[in-house]
Each structure stands twice: as C-alpha cells, then as structure tokens.
Amino acid sequence: MSSLTARSFRLQSLRQLIKPNSFKRDHSTSIVTSTVSNDNGRLRIEEEKYADIYSSSIQQPYKDVLESLAKRTENEFSNANMMITSLQGKLMCQLIKLFRPRNVLEIGGFTGYSAIAMGSGLPSKAKLTSLELNEKHAKMAEEYIRLAKLQNKIEIKVGPASER
C-alpha cells in the first residue's frame, strides 16, 4: 500500500470512529458527562444543570416569583430568550451579595427577571434602577417586582437609556 493510500485509509477509519459532535467529555468531578456541541462557548447542557443544582439558591419568596415570571415570559413573548437563565440569576444574586453595592443600574431590564434576582440580594438601603425601552415588558416587570415585594428597592424607568 502506498503511503498516500495508507494515509487516506487511516483518515477514513478515523472519520468513521470519530463523528462530529460525538466526543464524550468527563467533567472534573466525574459526575457530569456531556457531548461536545457547537454552542459557541456556552455551558454544555449537563454542566449547566449540575451547576444549577449545586449553586446557592435564591431564597423564598423570590424563587417562586422568578419561576412564575419565567413561565409567563416564555408563554407571552417570542423573544423570551432575552431573559437570563435561573443559573445566571443565582450568579447575579451572589455577586450583589458579595459586592453589596448601594446603587445598581441595569440597562435593558426586559420582563424583570434579572432585576428581581439582583434585588433579592441587595442590602436593605440599596437601590436598583432598571431601564427598559418596551412599555409592555416594563409593566410585566413592575407587576412581578410588586409580587416579590421589592418595589422599595427596584425602580423601572421606561424609555431610551440614552435619555435617562
């Protein structure tokens, strides 16, 4: 067999063994296994589930309000993918608790999920101002902020951020 033929045979054999997106990768804990995907750097699904399960959770009553808000946003808006995930919400809450800011500015609040997640971790006298362009999104955010009893900490302002 010539070297060129042998090389192409090996490549063909490798291609059959290793199909795209079929690699298995063990997580460092050996608990989480996921497939390699073309997800442009996003967490793999199984790793995100693992991180979500073992992350510090957002306390009640905020957790129920956030779950309800997420379901309603997904049902009412075709662009619900703009909302952060529960894992990202937990991270935002933890960062707020860690840094204890007096003021937080959120540009683009959507339906308020991230504002409530951050607001749940705010110190007692701190304020969060969320700027939202769409009035319908802002109204839903205000409704759920009231349900979470965070209206004394979170203010929603409607209109272009450049005018605020």
Query: Residue share in helices?
Result: 40-55%
Strand order of the largest sheet: 3-4-5
- The backbone outline, from C-alpha atoms, is elongated
**CATH second-level architecture of the largest domain:** 3-Layer(aba) Sandwich
Taking all Cα atoms into account, the compactness measure Rg is 22 Å
Instruction: Tell me the span between the first and last alpha carbons.
Output: 74 Å
How much of the sequence lies in strands comes to 5-15%
Low-confidence stretches: 21-38
Mean pLDDT: 81
- Strand element count: 5
Keywords: Catecholamine metabolism, Methyltransferase, S-adenosyl-L-methionine, Transferase
EC number: 2.1.1.6
Family: Belongs to the class I-like SAM-binding methyltransferase superfamily. Cation-dependent O-methyltransferase family.
Enzyme class: transferase
Word description of this protein:
- It is a single chain.
- The protein has a 3-stranded parallel beta sheet with strand order 3-4-5, with helices on one face.
- The N and C termini lie far apart (74 Å).
- It is built from 6 helices and 5 strands.
- With 164 residues, it is α/β, with parallel strands linked by helices.
- The chain folds into 2 domains: 20-54, no CATH class; 62-163, Rossmann fold (3-Layer(aba) Sandwich), CATH 3.40.50.150.
- Helix 4 packs parallel to helix 5 (113-119).
- The chain is elongated, with a radius of gyration of 22 Å.
- The protein has helices at residues 3-17, 45-54, 62-76, 86-99, 113-119, 135-147; strands at residues 24-26, 33-35, 103-107, 127-132, 154-158.
